[in-house]
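Open question from group meeting: does this chain pack into something compact, or does most of it stay loose? Before anyone orders reagents, we agreed to write out a predicted structure and look at it together. Recording both the input and the output here so the notebook holds the full record.
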Amino acid sequence: QLLEAKASLSLAQAQHALQLQQAKAQINNMVPKKQFEQLQNTLREEQCKTQQLQESLQQQAEQTCRQLVRTQEEHEQLLHAAVEQAEGLEQSLRHAEAVLAERAAQLSSAQAQLSRNKLLIEELRGENRRFAMALQAAELKQKTMEEKNQLLEEQASALKQLIGKITPASLS
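Structure tokens returned:
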């Protein structure tokens, strides 16, 4: 808008200069008074328009300057806010990385413990199988001993009965 206003002003000034030259040429050529007055009126009107354009141009320039200052201040505020936000995000990121590293260490430790526990469980399962086999063997041995014990008790009972029969007969 400022450039357009300057262009309009330059055009008006050029037209004004041209009209002034024309007016002077006509005056030199003994222009009639009525036409001279019309040209003077046109000249005054053009000067008035030029003055108005200059004032408008000045106002637009001042308004544009104020708007530029406001825009620059807003941009500086936005930049400051963005920098603060970036610093906050960077700090959050560092904190998150530290927490993540701690959790990774905990996870690694837990994984190592889990591996040790798996090995221990495998060892315990092996021991449990050996104990189960030993228990089975012990139960089988106990069963065999009980059967032998039963057989011995039956034999002892048979012997007692035989002794009981033999003893009265031998006494008599």
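Observations to bring back to the group:
The chain has a mean pLDDT of 90.
Residues 60-125 form one domain.
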